[in-house]
Model the fold of this input.
Amino acid sequence: MITFLEFEKPLAELYEQLEKTKEIEVISGIDATPTIREFEKKIEETRKELYSNLTPWQKVLVSRHPERPYTLAYIDGMCDKGSFIELHGDRNVKDDKALVGGLASIDGESVMVIGHQKGINTKMRQYRNFGMPNPEGYRKALRLMKMAEKFDIPVICLIDTPGAYPGLEAEERGQGEAIARNLFEMTQLNVPVLCFIIGEGASGGALGIGVGDVVYMLEHAWYSVISPENCSTILWRSWDFKEKAAESMKLTADDMFKNKLIDGIIKEPIGGAHFKPEEAIHNVREAIVGSLKKLKKIKPEKRILQRIEKFSAMGVVVEK
Amino acid sequence: MTEESETMVWFKRVKEGINTPTEEKKETPEGLWYQCGKCAKVVTSEEHKSTHWVCSGCGYHERINSKEYFHILFDDNKYIEIAPNMTSGDPLKFTDTKKYIDRVADSIKKTGENDAASAAHGKIDGLDAVVVAMNFNFIGGSMGSVVGEKISRAIDHCLKYKKPLIIISKSGGARMMEAAFSLMQMAKTSAKLTLLAKAKLPYISLMTDPTTGGVTASFAMLGDVNIAEPGALIGFAGPRVVKETIKKDLPKGFQTAEFVLDQGFLDFIVERKDLKAKIAQTIKLFQN
Done:
């Protein structure tokens, strides 16, 4: 069963027709291969057309596709087979299931991979708190980063969250402080830090593991200060302007790159990362290998200074 | 015995109605009086200023802006502003129900401030210091590129002249009309603060009512010393959002400065009348 997004209606119809043709072939015994080929060709063309002209809002929908690969799928697909050891807990309160991390290797070289984790089905979505970490998630991430620094292991962060969890206990335990601390500490980690927005990059909850030497976005990911729905509610006082908000916020990878707020874009397969996860994961892996090679050549002090300079340059002001 | 005392009337109106002729009525100039929003006590504006805009009846700390904090902190109200003419660009050409550039222009006109933060250097009890204070009246004290850049410049000044930094936060959080530019100010300010830390220059963060969102989740919580004014609302998510999330009423006092102190995220709470002395004392102890 394929999950179709609202803009994929033409695709859904074609698939339905294809299925019907296949059924008729079985019942009637008449060879329908040419018709089936025709439909398959049409499906490919339609998919290509739809995905090469996605509106910002459609990209938001793609980024939230229930079959889109999440952090653990990336770890499984891009790290050396069986190399991943998940490390749990912030050593203080508990283990946050919405933010995972651990040691692994890529091409035989150790890496610390940290990322938001959404659930893959209804039950797991709840278990993972929909990918919304509590403060202990950010503190676990920081513990792992500091450990990576100690052993001179690069840090890779995979970002995919609708936001940091706005709950009562999250406030009690200092959600704001936890995120702030990570921004401060990530700035001065003396190992390479690579960040990838693989799905949703919502606000401080995303940035909390998003300060890196390189920050890349997947082609259909989004990254901004708030979700388009909430932006619509606040600025237009209604949920109905989410499409307009998505457009105005310039939250796509293309716009973020144009505005120099990210360092690069990673191609997704036609049909999105959920359509061919292995291809999307492969592309991220390639970017990691390529960036690491370059970043490792730079002295830590210089890397840190460049990191600070990059983020310090962000912003547009007018001075008379 | 008079007639009045017999009927137990203490005062008696001699003439009915108000008899002052219109031409003899005295006009009260606008803003001469201040009424407390909490306990409704009325004092003259002059008196209110002399108590640092704190109600003498109930101790309520009225929301004040950068000019007032500079007045409270800097010796003889003498200070030099850093980049006072800096205003917001409109990198996204953003329009919601109103054009962002118009919103900014209107706010400048209305508040007399150029954006939601002002930075200045001067002396506090004879000690050189740099103060960044936020203007809540400017689009809810929201953090856009100007707030980030002002803090960044203030830190540059601190680094150059080896001065301590004080940031007075008062903000609803991010400036949505600058979207991701606004978000990145969190990374920018935090990154710059690492330079201050490396230079061993003290940073005191004062959180005032309200300090929420991206401001809390960046520079406000990163002080060597985190302090707050009494009763200030301090949090990451706003109380309304938290309430909607948990679908229950919030406990009394939730997200107040007193609550945040109790949770371990503040060093102390300071009343405005003691603010200058406490800050000066803290800096002195750091500078040894």
Q: What stands out?
A: Chain A touches chain B through 52 residues (CB under 8 Å). Chain A has two domains: 6-53, 60-312.
